[in-house]
Amino acid sequence: MEEALDFIQPGWKNEQVACQFLPKIKVAHDFDSIDRIDKSYGPSVPEVYGLYVAGDWTGRGEVLADAVFASARRAAQEVIREYNSIEVRSDLRS
Questions:
Q1: 31, 50, 87, 89 from 84: Cα distances, Å
Q2: pLDDT tens by residue, 7-58
Q3: CA–CA separation, 27 vs 37, rounded Å?
Q4: Are the C-beta atoms of residues 78 and 50 closer than 8 Å to each other?
Q5: What counts of helices (H) and strands (E) characterise the chain?
Q6: pTM of the predicted structure, to 2 decimals
Q7: DSSP designation for 8
Q8: Residues 6+ positions from 51 with CB-CB distance below 8 Å
Q9: Which of 51, 33, 29 is nearest to 42 (CA)?
Q10: Of the four listed, 30, 67, 81, 83, which is most buried by Cβ atoms within 10 Å?
Q11: Residue 79: which residues within 8 A CB-CB, separation 6 or more?
């Protein structure tokens, strides 16, 4: 997986802050239920500016790999949207 990331995002390891190898980590699956209708997680975390989440637990009807990639796309779109709004605000100040 790291080799694939090296190919599509060269230099990513220079930005890496921490790394964990967890070969025996437990996985807990979760699905939407009636008591969580209209509740979703991410992509942005309102309590922490600049923090975005992606993963199978942030799915909006998707599960497992579909949820991972769909939530990663939502997070990337949110980052781009935020970047563009900052860029527009800074252009207005100039």
A1: 33, 14, 5, 9
A2: 989 999 998 888 888 888 776 665 666 666 666 677 888 888 888 888 877 8
A3: 23
A4: no
A5: 2, 0
A6: 0.56
A7: H
A8: 44, 45
A9: 51
A10: 67
A11: 52
| Omega prior to 43 cis, within 30 of 0 | yes
C-beta of residue 56 within 8 angstroms of C-beta of residue 63:
yes
CA distance 42 to 36: 14
- Identify the burial level of 32 via C-beta atoms within 10 angstroms of its C-beta, where 0-12 means exposed, 13-18 middle and 19 or more buried: middle
Residue given tokens 């990639």 in the structure block:
69
Written as six digits, the tokens of 32 are 């939407």
- Tokens 């252009």 — which residue? 91
User: Cα(58)–Cα(51) distance, rounded to whole angstroms?
Assistant: 14
